[in-house]
Amino acid sequence: MTSAETGAPTERARAGEAAPSYGQPGDVEACLALLTKGSKSFTAASRVLPRRVRDSAAVLYAFCRVADDAVDLGTESDRVLRLRRRLDNVYSNRGLEGPVERAFADLVHAHALPIQVFEAMLEGFEWDASGRTYDTLSDTLAYAARVAATVGAAMTAIMGKREPHMVARACDLGLAMQLTNIARDVGEDAAMGRLYLPADWLRQEGLDPADFLREPRPLPGVLRATRRILDVADVLYQRADAGIAGLPSDVRSAIYAARYIYADIGRVIRERGGDSVTTRAVVSSSRKAALVWRALLTTWDSPGPALFDAASPEVEMLVGAVSQSAPDLRDRPSPSPSVS
Fold this sequence. Notes:
mainly alpha, Farnesyl Diphosphate Synthase, 16 helices
């Protein structure tokens, strides 16, 4: 989506903003290109981020995208092991390969992003590679914590907020977005032999999860389970709102725009009765533009009491890792020659 489509003042007053310097010249631009190509929803929301955060978000997204693709395209024996080695190189700042790794290495050191966050993310990718199953809602949330709440936790640190309650609310938003993804992709995932809806929910509907994977159909029980996961997402979105209100004022609109756009995917799914087996929910460009403007025009209230709700058990390790770390550029490793 272009700035003309959103109508958002994407470059207003940005000339004076301090842009981060990550990697070599052109590396951040390569990451921005990956963001633009890979996610229309995040691209739309990111256009109203200040430059200092937008570039950081693009670098983070690019690493996640490249890592996820590497797992999907690699061989069974080497995909995650190789990624773990690359992550170790990032944190030691040695043997970096290409623009994404170079920029990402600078990002994690500049913001003291703990390696545990990205080790958890790679574990989630490993679960995908191994065909892990998810019997309960907690199992599904544990997966969502690794592949999505990790991003929320890292972004909160990048935006300068590391208090445990703020990280917990950011993780809520990541969980909600991933549950929305799961609801949207039931049919596509089933075609790949993957099921992220809690299997117990299907059994409660009298369905055999293995039968559904063999022949994915929009059965009433599947539709109910899909709507049910969206109900869980809605609770998490509402709890995350308290955290968004506590963010620095120049980033709130963008994060709320992402929240609105993702939650709207759930609206589309519900309008179709919960059917994401035969069709895929899409939020139109004009609707995204309206939601971006809604975020820009939102009147910001003080964070509500939900701000201090306990973290979901599945994200406690992320909250602890991020809230206990703090930037200290004195400990940053010296750059080593990189391999392009």
